[in-house]
Amino acid sequence: MTSLLRLGGGLVRGGQRGTLLGARMLHVSSRVDDIRAAALQKTLTTAPKALVAKEKLVFGHTFSDHMLTVEWTAKGGWEAPQIKEYGPLSLDPSCSVFHYAFECFEGLKAYRDAQGKVRLFRPDKNMERMNHSVERLHLPQFDGEQVIECIKELVRTDERWVPEGRGYSLYIRPTVIATENTLGVHRANSALLYVITSPCGPYFPTGFKAVSLYCDETNVRAWPGGVGNRKMGANYAASVGPQVEAEKKGYQQVLWTIGEDSELMEVGTMNLFVHWRNEAGEEELVTPPLDGTILPGVTRDSVLELARGWGEFKVSERKINMKQIARASDEGRLLEIFGAGTACVVTPVNRIHFKGRDYVVPLDPAHPESQAGPVAGRIYKALMDIQYGDVPSKWSVLVD
Question: Which region, left, alpha or beta, applies to residue 50 given φ > 0 means left and ψ of -120 to 50 means alpha?
Fold first, then answer.
């Protein structure tokens, strides 16, 4: 059983509270050229699920009570957004998403601060990147600010699912898929934007611990002129085989490279950072450039801005390869390496296998519990301070 609440219309049934999304009574058409948060309708479950103890949460295995859906057609445009009970989607077997990978997604989180308020971290960057992805797929673009308001209402609706404590959060997964039930590779005439949420703890079961990398010189994650800079499901499906092979060899993640010199790309599903003394003797934090093959990570951008704000060492976006890393390791110039992403935040690296040899990455002896290097540990704390509202920042957006 469900109860209905229509936002912007001022009507609340089923004992649910109202919302500030609609400040006055509005007459809203069911189909519009763009998504409008004021048109959002809610059909709420009357049988909420039992919460899972946060210590038992496994990333991506538990889902909250509701989800957000917005349907689109080329003829009618966007329909009114809907928040309804979490459940299966009804799709025709011929939908182009199943056959031609017309799909993209995002990942962001909601955090509960020390005062019990819920916050999002830089959601505008996720909407910007998602519009970039749907543009490449010729799926419908949308007003990112309006979708953020809809996501806020979804989080408010399922606020009890936002766990307390550092390292815990509500993972938010916006997705856009093509739903046209016709075979043939062509621009889709119907689509669905939906958002689900999942309470979670640390991404890796080991928590904030260093991981080992296997440098894959056979497979390539992305290539110039491809879609490596878009967050599409097809980019991830192809990575599973090499990841399994790396695990069989005793390594936790794949280090993706490209070219004869093994230029660094990404690590697993994270952006990669190298802290070293470069060939010129400069202390430098370097990450591969956004050349079309690298995903423009929100955490990546945050790490760069934080490090540049410190002004303590050189911060660069430029090409760097494994031959340089190997040489720096042999010469004692390698200081630390870490990955960064929404799910994991920051993940230190302790060794890299390259051309039959393991190169050990230094770790900070002052942080034996996490094994993080000094920069990785400092960035991790700075990001967490902002995400959980301990340090004021424009990046932290209150849901209420």
Answer: beta
Cα 377 to Cα 337: distance, rounded to the nearest angstrom: 11
Beta bridge pairs of residue 321:
263
Do 55 and 127 lie in one domain? The reply is: yes
Copy the structure tokens of residue 169.
């959060």
Structural domain that includes position 301:
211-387
For residues 153 and 19, give the distance between their C-alpha atoms in angstroms, rounded to a whole number: 8
For residue 268, is it within any domain? yes
What 8-state DSSP symbol labels residue 55?
Answer: G
Instruction: Look at the chain and report how many structural domains it folds into.
Output: 2
Task: Report residue 6's pLDDT band, with 50, 70 and 90 as the boundaries.
Answer: very low
- Residues facing residue 119 across a β-bridge: 111, 398
The two tokens of residue 381 are 């704390």
Report yes or no: 279 and 256 within 8 Å, Cβ to Cβ.
Answer: no
Interatomic CA distance for residues 35 and 24, integer angstroms: 18
**Quick count: other Cβ atoms within 10 Å of Cβ 33?**
11
Is residue 369 included in any domain, yes or no?
A: yes
Residues 136 and 243 in one domain: no
Are residue 175 and residue 98 in the same domain, yes or no? yes
- Does the residue 392 lie in any domain? no
Annotate 70-93 with b (16+ C-beta within 10 A) or e (fewer). bbbbeeeebbbbbbbbeeeeeeee
Average pLDDT, the chain: 90
Look at residue 396 and tell me if it is in a domain: no
Q: pLDDT grade, residue 26 (50/70/90)?
A: very low
